[in-house]
Design a protein that fits this description.
InterPro entries: Ca-reg_mRNA-binding_domain, CSD, CSP_DNA-bd, Excalibur_Ca-bd_domain, NA-bd_OB-fold. This protein is of the alpha+beta class and 203 residues long. It has helices at 77-85, 92-130, 137-140, 143-146, 173-182; strands spanning 2-10, 15-19, 27-30, 46-53, 59-66.
Length: 203
């Protein structure tokens, strides 16, 4: 490290010359080599420096500092790297806002689900209310008197249309009612009053 006196300085152009007993010729110094100092150099400052040679053969001062002048605080690369890699911490306000947004979204989802369930439940019950009442076996005994024009479900007492047409082929009044209401070409209700086999003593 050399020590010399700044004998000239052009503040407008940012350069000057250092005179040192350890260097044969005055050494050129540029402001860029002192950018880390807290103030600009001035004539009469004592400068500590090293000498480097440009590719064109000219020498200049590098790694310079001004005696008695503190260096400006320059963030080192290590500090910059540490700051960049520092874990990001979400502020309490942002955390609270994020939590509130999640709760609102959950409430909306639950509300939609509950509404859809209620609509499905209401439609199901409405459908059940509109279903045609099922005729039980007990109703068949007086069925022809209550509502002779009603249609008996085909699956009542497991009756089925099997080609029989006459009262003598029936086993009960209920079966006869089923046949005249659901099966073609029956001959059990001559007067078409909806009451089959009126003259059959078995019923």
């Amino acid at each position: 490290m050399n020590k010399g006196l700044l004998t000239s300085w052009n503040d407008n152009r940012g350069y000057g010359f250092i005179k040192s007993s350890s260097v044969a010729h005055d050494t050129f110094i540029h402001i860029s080599s002192l950018k880390h100092m807290s103030r600009k150099p001035k004539v009469g400052d004592t400068i500590y420096f090293e000498v480097a040679t440009d590719p064109n053969g000219k020498s200049k001062a590098v790694n310079c500092r001004i005696e008695g002048v503190i260096e400006s605080k320059v963030e080192s690369k290590l500090e910059k790297t540490a700051a960049f890699n520092k874990p990001f911490k979400m502020s309490k306000a942002k955390k609270k806002s994020s939590t509130l947004a999640n709760l609102v979204a959950l409430a909306i989802i639950l509300s939609i689900g509950f509404s859809a369930y209620n609509r499905y439940f209401a439609n199901t019950h409405a459908g059940n209310k509109n279903n045609t009442p099922v005729i039980t076996n007990a109703d068949l005994t007086t069925f022809d008197e209550k509502d002779p024009k009603a249609v008996i479900p085909k699956n009542t007492q497991n009756f089925s249309c099997d080609g029989r047409q006459h009262c003598s082929q029936m086993t009960s009044r209920a079966e006869a009612v089923f046949f005249i209401k659901n099966c073609p070409n029956t001959k059990m209700d001559g007067d078409n009053d909806g009451i089959p086999c009126e003259n059959d003593s078995r019923f």
